[in-house]
Amino acid sequence: MTEPAAHHDEWVRRPAAAEQGTNCTAAQYAEMYARSMADSDGFWLEQAQRLDWSRQPTKAGDWRFDPVSIEWFVDGALNICHNAVDRHVAAGNGDRIALIFEPDDPAGEVRRITYADLQAEVIRMANTLKKMGVAKGDRVTIYMPMVPEGAFAMLACARIGAVHSVIFGGFSPEAIAGRVEDCASDWIVCADEGLRGGKTIPLKDNVDAALAKASVKAVLVVRHTGGDVAMTEGRDHWYHDLSQGVPGECPCEPMNAEDPLFILYTSGSTGKPKGVLHTTGGYAVWVETTFRYTFDYRPGEVFWCTADIGWVTGHSYVVYGPLQNGATALMFEGVPNHPDHDRFWATVAKHKVNIFYTAPTAIRALMREGAEPVNRHDLSSLRLLGSVGEPINPEAWRWYSETVGKGALPVVDTWWQTETGGVMITTLPGAHDMKPGSAGRPFFGISPQLVDGDGTVIADERTGGAASGNLVIDRSWPGQSRTVYGDHDRFVQTYFSTYPGKYFTGDGCRRDADGYYWITGRVDDVINVSGHRMGTAEVESALVLHDKVAEAAVVGFPHDIKGQGIYCYVTLNAGEEPGEELAAELRNQVRREIGPIASPDHLHFTPALPKTRSGKIMRRILRKIAENETGALGDTSTLAEPGVVDTLIEGRLNR
Ligand code: WT7
């Protein structure tokens, strides 16, 4: 394995204030981590005690990775909606604010939803779903903007034991149809339209287009913008109509710990997106615990995670993590640069946000606007900053820490994945000093290892020491995904076949001598565009659907703002000519098939792709050319036609 080039591992001391009143000091971390390893069962059963169980679990983890079988708290029963909502009301905290809604338009109406309101809203939504015919175990697709009704819908599903599948509002009708079909979802909850940065997103229209290809029994439509949408008689129902007269009570369905909670589609290195499945008990404990410790949450604080509920970050740290902790979570409908580049900071000041959690791509974009938009606002409410979704470059880390945090706040850089359910590697605010660019130390119960190509362990928590390799996790944790919906073989194949007996993350990583982990990025054919995972194979499939395209190969390349951009090499059928018009058609094709987030940054028309004599595309070479590292192409001796490379380099330079 190669050592990553320059790294900047200087220490940044944790602020003294972060240690005051912390729920985890350095000594406590060391003790708790050691116990989580030595007595996993005892440790996790104890953490689980913060939740209400209708049947107490007597055992924590019951799992093996070869053959793969993962269960946690298997004899326990609980309902995550009860834990996120009802129990806080029952404990006399019904007046506490659960959700603050900040609309896209800063002059729009802010909504402050108490836990008692939330309970009433979730019951109304749950009973409306039941009235529509939704039953325990059914899959419900949720395609919503970032409005409280999105969270109500998720919690309502959880309440009645339905399995939600949230689809990000930026995905296309094609993508909706594929996901609805994959999990045989008979129900969709959507809004008329979404609003982002002053633009409307035609959510209901997209659902209608998707339902030309897939079919469902019913669509529940929440009125949000009031825009004009078509309603199909007998299939589509307005929420405000159908919810009329539903009962004001709806018991939380007791769920077995291993009953499915949600499916979330995510891209992999091959094939269509996978429906990552999370179950109830382990996920509930994992996100409750990781939220509590990663953000060192203190009662009364306002927590703002900027992620959309369409991504796992929104599931775990807008909805289930904060609410199970009785926290106040801010839900923001808009975007960082609307109406101006100070929107995040204006919103922090407006709602006195204490904990702010966002993605490096947003930080880099805002950094470009300089300190002035930040300094327009009083950010003194902030106590903690967080980063998630992709590696944060030290320069962006420092800007975040110094310009936003005034050099006085802890910054947590949290590494995790859709499949991990919640935070896996991070510093804890009161326990650890920081290193800009490093995620830090393993969370309780997490056993990371670096392995070489053969799977030989080159560094882990037992051996200590510095090394670089592929990141695997060698034991299960409560929030681990249990399967790929409807395709357990694919689950086993994707995560457990490369290094039998270990969970393979797909990431490369360095561990330094202080035990800090530095994620270097994906080592598979997955790219990370603005913190969103994109399978290069998916983009390729979208491109080759065009009848002029013969072949496509897609790779990532470094992008100043997005982290990675999408670079597409395209060969055309005989007689077809490249040109701007065709390029525009291809961009549209990808947007139509996947969504705007997959729009190619570069289209490189080429007469041929570099292939081995057995016909395999040499992506390593394509990556190097896209990165403009044409001097370091490595071994090209296995190329079938070496001349192809020169043509490609020329094409790149003339771009
Ligand atoms: C991939 C997972 C974590 C939820 C949002 C993304 C990359 C994520 C970090 C980080 C370096 C990170 C990894 C990972 N990633 N967080 N703090 N530092 N890389 O979830 O879409 O499942 O993507 O995002 O490459 O494998 P996801």
UniProtKB/TrEMBL annotation:
Domain AMP-binding enzyme C-terminal: from-to ranges: 538-616
Protein's recorded name: Acetyl-coenzyme A synthetase
Residues reported to bind Mg(2+): 544, 546, 549
Entry's EC annotation: 6.2.1.1
Transmembrane segments: none
Highest taxon of source: Bacteria
Catalytic activity: acetate + ATP + CoA = acetyl-CoA + AMP + diphosphate
GO annotations of cellular component type: cytosol
Gene name of the record: acs
Organism of origin: Tsuneonella aeria
Residues annotated to bind ATP: 389-391, 413-418, 507, 522, 533
PANTHER family registered for this protein in UniProt: ACETYL-COENZYME A SYNTHETASE (PTHR24095), ACETYL-COENZYME A SYNTHETASE 1 (PTHR24095:SF14)
